[in-house]
Amino acid sequence: MSSLTNRLRDFLLTPQSSIWLTILRMGLGLQVLCYGLSLRKDWLELLERENQGVIRRDLTEAILSARSPFIPRVGWIADIGAYLGLSEATVLWAVWTVLMLAALLVVIGLFCRISSVVVWLLYLCTAKSAELFSYGVDNFTIIGLFYLAIGPLPDSAALDAQWRGIPPGNSTLQGLHRRVLQLHICVIYFFGGISKCAGRGWWNGISLWRALTRAPFDIVPPEILIRASFILTLAGILVCVMEATYAIFIWPRKTRFIWFAGVLGMHVGIGLMMGMYLFASVMIVLNLAAFGPGFAFNRSAVSKIGRPNAAGTATLPAKHLSA
Fold first, then answer.
1. Half-sphere exposure (CA, 13 Å, Cβ side) for 27?
2. Do 264 and 287 touch, CB atoms closer than 8 A?
3. DSSP states of 20-44 as a string?
């Protein structure tokens, strides 16, 4: 039993450097900046309560209230602004401005903790208030921002560490947070792959055909897809296998690179062939942070790692820190 406990502790508390957190911080900061800039022209139309669109914010927030009254939403901020005598448009543009400023601070690593929390909360509010227009990219961005907000900030490359002199989180804490992110990514791909395997559309290419020919994702001309129909079948099978077995083959050293590169290639293909650039970019950022630079976990590496001391940190030479 003690051996199992030690192995579990070694797995969860493997000391690592903060490079993974740098990738997560900068990648998600740029992700939110692109999100805000892409919606700048439609920001009021998307979030105003009395907009002229078919789906208004009061409808989406009423649906949120039916699910749970505690889900954050833009309406809370707008109500505070109205109490202070501010117009709804002024409040919405203030939300956009603060979101962009906080995302910029996240990218450069200045006031990391507070800026990451602000970005996460404001992004959560806007995504939930416009939930009927959102898709998977918002859910995965919220997940990534949550891990960033609770992560051992600042990382060593942030201005907080370089300029303000705030020490980064210790290597054991870095390893714990990254390990939890890795496990979460594995769970996501496992259930995503299993759900695809349950339907025959992914095994005969029909699901890919429907995805690639449905507006507004029909970037590739249909005639090209018809000529390459056999590739759709093969690609659908590969997606099912790659996602369902990701949680198994991403860990062994011999298969790690194949699955890692395959999943990244899959998301690059989604971005280029369907125009889902933000979805592709957030999945690439999460994968790079979780399993990217210097990812290593094996028995020999663990044997070199010191047990956590009374302060909760592990003694390990710098050359053995996993990036």
1. 26
2. yes
3. HHHHHHHHHHHHHHHHHHHTTTTHH
Is the distance from CB of 106 to CB of 148 less than 8 angstroms?
Answer: yes
Structure tokens at 275: 């125009």
Three-class SS state of 135: coil
CA gap 295, 290 in Å, rounded: 8
Q: How far apart are CA 248 and CA 263, in angstroms?
A: 13
Q: Which residue has the higher pLDDT, 140 or 217?
A: 140
Q: Is the peptide bond before 221 cis (omega within 30 degrees of 0)?
A: no
* Alpha helices, H only, 48-135: 57-67, 74-83, 88-108, 112-129
Contacts 24+ apart (CB under 8 A), 251-257: 251/297, 253/296, 253/298, 256/291, 256/295
Query: Are 50 and 89 a contacting pair, CB within 8 Å?
Result: no
Mean pLDDT of 18-28: 96
If asked whether residues 96 and 158 sit together in one domain, one would say yes
Same domain, residue pair 193 and 57: no
Domain hosting 67: range is: 19-164
Q: Which residues of 218-231 are buried (b: 16+ CB within 10 A; e: fewer)?
A: eeeeeeebeeeeee
Domain boundary among 100, 132, 164: 164
User: Which tens digits make up the pLDDT trace of 151-200?
Assistant: 999 999 999 999 988 998 889 999 999 999 999 999 999 999 999 999 88
Decide: helix, strand or coil at residue 16: strand
How many domains in the chain?
A: 2
Which of 164, 199, 234 is at the close of a domain?
A: 164
For the chain, what's the residue count? 323
Q: Whole-model pTM?
A: 0.88
Q: Which of 90, 64, 65 is nearest to 77 (CA)?
A: 90
Answer yes or no: is pLDDT of 52 > 80.
no
Query: 27-36, 213-222, 234-243, 298-307: lowest mean pLDDT where?
Result: 298-307
